User: What shape does this take?
Amino acid sequence: MAEYRLHYKKGKVGVAKAHAEYILRENKYSKAKEDLIYKESGNMDCIIDGTSAIDFWESADNFERINGVSYRELELNIPNEFNHEQGIELVQNFVKNEIGYKHPYSFAIHESHNKDGEKNLHCHLMFSERELDDILRTKEQFFKRANSKKPELGGAKKDNIWRKKEQLLSLRKSWEVITNTALEKNGFDERVSCESLKKQREEAIKKEQYDKADFLDRNPVNILGKTLRKIKRVGFKNLSKEEQESITKYKEAKEIRASKKREYEIKKGNVVPTKEECQLKLNKITNTTEEDLKLKALNIITKGAFYSHSKILRKIENQLLIDPLNEVLRKQEKELKETINSLKLENENSPKYKRIYEQINRDFEREKEIYQAASKDYGIDKLESLQEEKITKSYENKYKNASSESLEFRMKELEVENPRELAKNVLTNFRLEAITKDIMINEQLKESLTNKMQTQLMIGEREGYKESDLKLKEIEKKLDYKYKEYDLMIDGLEKQKEKVDRLENEIKAKKDNELKVIKTLLGTSENTNTDKVKNYIENLVKLEKAKTNYEYYSNNNIDEKYNIIIYKQRMNILAYENSLVEKEKELIPNKKLLEKEAKRLLESCDLKINSLNKTVDTLEKGKEKLDKFTSEKKLENGYTTIQLLALNKITKGEYNKVFFEAKKISKDINNLEKELSQTSKLNFIKRSSISKDIETLKTNYNKCKSSEENLLKKYKDSAYLKDVSSNINKCLNTAKKRVEKENKSLKEDRNIQYLIKRKLNEIVGLEREFKPYTKNKPIQLQKDLKHTLGGLKKALVQDKKPNQNNLEIKLQKEKEGWEL
Assistant: This one.
């Protein structure tokens, strides 16, 4: 379809010749001539003895004033409906209309193609601001300042109209009119517009062209040309933050435009949808209700206000699920609901609304027919879930190289996962999990503190009792707040039942697909007895680690930053427990096999531990060296170690050369002096020879030390040294962090191997007797997540004995006095 684009820019002095060569595909750009369709230059006979286009633009670079404008340029998009001859005629008409015989110009028409084979026919039009006046001038004189009194003595006058905004608007409108005239002349129904997308959409809605309005409901595809050139030169990572954002927005806008353009062309019947498009669209059409069409009509009549308010309302409702006690959000929710209801009441019974709805319904039915007809051609009898196929393929790629142990554990995780529980946790940002666990912890603290107070009351510990009473009140206050928050969260989830159901179904579908893939892959793999025993022991260790992590994150969940980790650790615990119980049924009865395989595993376990110990020791030594290098402690020469490394880099190794040479000479002097002291005083010849050698070495030593001192003085406190030192320091600190991270990981692996070794020793009888894992009561925080406030309390708090209730009554009555 025809698309409008006119980009207006100016060229600085010094780039006119290079740009002319580029668009005209001449000189060094002649190799790229395959995309050049046509080129033309004109109005350049104003120069004495004539000139070529490239020479003219080179003269503009040479003789225009510094910081001046050597040319203006228009980049024009030619409708893809046109062939080359029609495109050339269109540009020539525009040049004749706007440039005429007043200004020297050059233009070239290029044709490129994107990855889908779609052509991009466009024109680059360069022209000079200087206006022709029938006076012949030399190249140098033409670009001089104009002389109003004696024009023949000065240069050609610049037309300042090209600097005004009104001229740009006039050019935009002119290109629209000339393009639309050409489209009509050549029998095309398409038209272009120089107006913004917003104004074009408003115009389409007025004309009841709602499919076109949908296509125009997007952001414009705009970006600075220099940013695109820079990304080709330096890459995305080396762009500034603002440039990266503009590139990302540009790509997103481009993808949305391409998607909407294709959808619009399909609706018009110009393009046949693919099989995948039919499957996706028919699924969407099937799920579209009459209410959806009415809401779309309501959004159109309110100029987008209905969808805008509804979007904000959904966002606030999601935030309320996470923070149900936020009064500001509740007030905003109420105001938005009132606004949305008033929009419905004002417009739903109006004749305009009914007319819009009828047109939307007709467009919907026509679109439905197009996709149904195409689906019959592809032989699609029933709606196939393309999304499920994609999900299945993604899981197959994910697990194709996975071990059978990891597949089995993942299967156990999926089996214990409750889709509805997960859906509600996802919608509440896993706060539901965290709040429930927090309530359990505080209920346990309350019970423990109540028992402690009973003891204090019995033994007459007055001060301790009062302190415990204050703590109990704080816990009860916190519990009341948490119960209230929990109750409101559950109510909010009940109100959004449709969203919960939809997410639950999505999770369940993905879960079923993943399980199906895992079971298929497990069916093709076989585990040896050694693998089974190894996996069983590893799971025993990992279970203990998961329980430790679960308790740690639960008790340290400040600002609720560990919500999702707490949920995942609980799922891991349940999965490990189920896996262990299942494996014990197979392994524990066969004690001899278990012991035999445990002995074999012990050998490999010892080898792994030794290997890990060596690696850890190596990393520890490396870390010590890095610590020395990055130390801020200054040496005798006043430099830090990093500064000396930087100095050596700056001097290209010269510092190290003189430093180590001096060190070597000093060692040689010490050896000779030692030899001299051991030589007999009567051996004059030898002593004389050694003394001369020592003097020579001392002279060389002094030279080396002098060179070293000169280098130290030269770069002392220099900015260059600081910059190089800073870069080296960054590199060393990065290396240190990597070493620390790797060391920490290896130590964890080593600890796991030690625990595995201990379990294996228990099995073979080298340590205490091995006891199979006994599954405890599962950690089931939210059975169906439909607890009422009282119901949750009843579920979490154990039944109290009568004397505990009496104590609570007694403590409540007692305020000032002390009774025993």
Remarks:
- The first strand starts at residue 6 and ends at 12.
- Strands lie at 6-12, 36-42, 69-77, 105-113, 119-127.
- The two ends are 93 Å apart (CA to CA).
- Residues 719-764 form the longest helix (46 residues).
